[in-house]
Write a structure and sequence with these properties.
Length: about 300
C-alpha cells in the first residue's frame, strides 16, 4: 500500500472521487440539480505528531544529531543526551507547578547544550577528510533551525519528522491551535427524493495557511474539474469575506448576507451549516481526523481519500 501511495498522483485520486459520485448518480443518491447549490468550508487535518514544545524539540534535535554524528563515525566531546533528558523532565514538572522561572532556567540549560553540540559538530566536520552523507547535513540544518527559531517565525519547525506541519488557529475554545494543514471541503446543499444523500464534492489540502477567501478560487476550479461544471451558487461562512473571486456563472453568498438575497437564496444560506456534520463524519468515521501519511504529498492524498470515504 505504501508503494501504491508513492506512485499514485492526486489527479488519479480525484478521478476515483469523480467515479464514486458518478456511481451515486446512477443509484439515484445524487442528482445533477443537487449540485447547483454547494456549501463550502475549511477545516484542519491534523498530522500524527506529538504536541510541539520548545524543550521537546530541542531534546529531539540533540538526540538525533548525536545519533547521526555517531553513524558518520565522528567522535564528540560530549553528547549531552542524558543531562538534557533530565532537564526536559524538570521543565515539564516546573510548568505543571506554575514555576516559570525554574522552567525558563532549565530551558536555557537545554538551549545552551544544543548550541554547544552544534558548534562541536561543525568544528569536527571541518577536519573530516571523507565526504559525509546527505542525511548528515539535513540533520545539522534542522538542529540549527530549532536552536535559532523563535515563536512567531514564519518557518517555525513544529515536528522533526514532519517539517511541513503548520500551526493553524481556528478560534476553538477546546483547541486554540491545531497542527497540520488546512483542507477545503464542499458538499451539495440539498438532496432529491428518499434516496438523496450528501456527498463530498471536493476535498483538497491547502498548504501555506491561506486565508479562507483565498482558497475559494482553487476550490471552485476543483469542483468544476470533478463534477464537470461550476455550481450556480456557492455558500460559505463569514470567514470567506473579502474573497474578491468573481465568475459570470457562479454567485457566492456568505452567512448573514442581506444585499441581493432573494427568498430562495436566503433558504440556501440558512442551509450552509449542512457541511458541518459532513466534516464531523469525515473526521470521526473517515480519515480526516489524523493524517498518518508522510510529507506534503501525504497531506494531499489523505484529504482526497477522506472525501472518497
Amino acid at each position: 500500500m505504501s508503494h501504491f501511495r508513492g506512485r499514485i498522483k492526486a489527479s488519479t485520486l480525484d478521478a476515483i472521487l469523480q467515479e464514486s459520485l458518478a456511481i451515486a448518480c446512477e443509484l439515484g443518491a445524487l442528482k445533477l440539480k443537487d449540485v447547483k447549490s454547494v456549501a463550502i468550508d475549511t477545516t484542519v487535518q491534523e498530522k500524527n505528531i506529538t504536541h510541539p514544545t520548545e524543550h521537546g524539540l530541542m531534546r529531539k534535535a540533540i538526540t538525533k544529531l548525536s545519533e547521526t554524528v555517531r553513524r558518520a563515525g565522528i567522535k564528540l566531546r560530549q553528547s549531552y543526551v542524558r543531562v538534557v533528558q533530565k532537564a526536559a523532565i524538570k521543565v515539564g514538572r516546573y510548568i505543571h507547578a506554575k514555576q516559570m522561572r525554574r522552567a525558563k532556567r532549565e530551558l536555557k540549560f537545554i538551549r545552551v547544550r544544543l548550541g554547544r553540540l552544534i558548534r562541536d559538530v561543525e568544528r569536527k566536520v571541518e577536519n573530516v577528510s571523507q565526504e559525509l552523507p546527505l542525511f548528515f547535513y539535513d540533520t545539522l540544518r534542522k538542529a540549527k533551525q530549532i536552536y535559532k527559531q523563535k515563536r512567531g517565525d514564519p518557518d517555525y519547525l513544529y515536528s522533526w519528522h514532519a517539517p511541513e506541519v503548520e500551526c493553524i488557529s481556528k478560534g476553538k475554545a477546546r483547541a486554540p491551535y491545531e497542527f497540520g494543514v488546512k483542507v477545503s471541503l464542499a458538499t451539495n446543499l440539498r438532496t432529491s427524493g428518499k434516496k438523496g444523500k450528501h456527498f463530498i464534492l471536493h476535498a483538497k489540502a491547502m498548504p501555506g495557511r491561506p486565508y479562507d477567501g483565498h482558497t475559494l478560487k482553487r476550490a471552485a476550479e476543483n469542483i468544476e474539474k470533478i463534477i464537470g461544471k461550476l455550481p450556480e451558487r456557492l455558500v460559505a461562512d463569514k470567514g470567506y469575506k473579502g474573497h474578491k473571486w468573481e465568475d459570470p456563472h457562479t454567485q457566492v453568498f456568505l452567512s448573514g448576507q442581506k444585499r441581493g438575497v432573494t427568498p430562495a437564496i436566503k433558504r440556501d444560506i440558512k442551509r450552509r451549516s449542512v457541511i458541518e456534520p459532513i466534516i464531523g463524519h469525515a473526521k470521526n468515521d473517515g480519515l480526516l481526523r489524523r493524517n498518518y501519511l508522510k510529507g506534503r504529498k501525504g497531506d494531499e492524498i489523505n484529504a482526497i481519500l477522506a472525501g472518497i470515504g
